[in-house]
Amino acid sequence: MAGSEYTSREAEQKIRQGRRREQEDGVSRGECSPPPPEGAACPHCGAFVPAGALYCGECGGNLLHPAVCSACGAPTKPQGDICEVCGAWLSEGICKFCYTPLPAGAAFCPNCGNGRDGIVCPDCGTLSIFDFCPKCGRPLSNFARQALEAANNDPDIRLIADNSKRAAKIAAELAAIAEAEAEAEKKRAEEEAARIAAEKERAEEEKQRLNEAAENIRRIAAEKKRAREEAARIAAEKTRREEALRKQQEREAAEAALAALKAEALQRQQEDDPVTSALRAAINKVRNMTFANAQLARLFYMARRPLFSRRWRCNAYGNIHSSPCECAEPQHGGVWL
Ligand SMILES: [Zn+2]
Ligand SMILES: [Zn+2]
Ligand SMILES: [Zn+2]
Ligand SMILES: [Zn+2]
Ligand SMILES: [Zn+2]
After folding, report:
1. Most exposed residue of 149, 165, 185, 234, measured as fewest CB within 10 angstroms of its CB?
2. Which residues surround ligand 5, an ion (CB under 5 A)?
3. CB atoms within 10 A of CB 125
4. From the CA of 74, how far away is ligand 2's center (Å)?
5. Which element (helix H / strand E) includes 153?
């Protein structure tokens, strides 16, 4: 299913303003002094980027962001706006709510009016850099209130609310498939890593064996030792083969279970009545949204948090977060679990 772009009137306005600002910047730079021919290396992928660029043409990474968080030293996500480890905001001098550059010393954003440091939640006292309080979920900004209103008027959400039991069943089914897919993918990656490690180990053993063989030509006495080691090597190789076979059988079982799950879902889908089909489409749409920036995504999903849900999986990395406020790149969509 194709992803759809979420744009409230507010969002479009924000993007337009951002673009206008970029164009103005570009024009004034062009008139005053031609851009210098030199560039720099992208802090995220090392690719050459021309001077004045905001994003890396190679990896799409934000060039204003350090490769590691200046607060905690953890590596940053190239397109993230916060550090996923400590939660620090990465764009100093940029409004945390609408991404507008802030004049030096301004306590409030001239574009959206929100505080430079964030908004203190009146309910729980948390200093939030998000439109919804990441601790208690209270809407804090006008953007959040508009997003809630939009969510209440969203026909997909109404349809899901009116058919909550059936929607919950379909959502659980889709989540189970995604979970099994992630599990199978993880297993494949682990096996690949184990295979590479074993290969390396074998190569090293081979080298060592050659060295030992050379020595054995001079010292026949060592021949016995070599034979013993050869026997041990053969035994180890046998163990390794058995282990690989066991892992392959495990993977095949997991893939068969996933295939069965998918077939079952397809079977159910074919038996669907119109309401169930519409529900399925609505749920899939919400899972596969993409957004112009991270805060728009957090607005959208925080406004649609199911009661008591405290787990959100991002599409960007498949990580489980307590909410999109903990994810550095929620703009690629995700799902409440
Ligand atoms: Zn890059
Ligand atoms: Zn950090
Ligand atoms: Zn702002
Ligand atoms: Zn709060
Ligand atoms: Zn994430």
Report:
1. 165
2. 314, 317, 319, 327
3. 10
4. 6
5. none
The encoded tokens of residue 152 equal 């209440």
Cα distances (angstroms) measured from residue 200 to each of 205, 236, 243, 333 = 9, 15, 17, 38
**How many other CB atoms sit within 10 Å of the CB of residue 91?**
15
What's the 337 CA to ligand 4 centre distance in angstroms? Answer: 21
- Beta-carbon contacts of 204 under 8 Å, excluding residues fewer than 6 positions away, are none
**Any residues with CB less than 8 A from the CB of 63 and at least 6 apart, and which?**
40, 42, 43, 49, 53, 54, 55, 56
End-to-end CA distance of the chain: 20
Show me where the domains of the chain are located: 1-29+39-153+289-308, 164-287
CA of 75 to the centre of ligand 2 (A): 8
Tokens of 147: 């997003």
Going from the Cα of 131 to the center of ligand 2, the distance in angstroms, rounded, reads: 20
Q: Would you state the pLDDT for residue 27?
A: 43
- Ligand 5 center from residue 52 Cα (angstroms): 29
> What is the per-residue pLDDT across 267-286, written as a single tens digit (0 to 9) for each?
887 887 888 888 888 888 88
Predicted TM-score (pTM) of the model is 0.55
| Residues measured by CB to lie within 5 Å of ligand 1, the ion | 42, 44-45, 47, 56, 58-59, 61
Separation between Cα atoms, residue 65 and residue 94, nearest integer Å: 11
Structure tokens at 247: 């892992």
- The answer to whether the beta carbons of residues 84 and 74 sit under 8 Å apart is yes
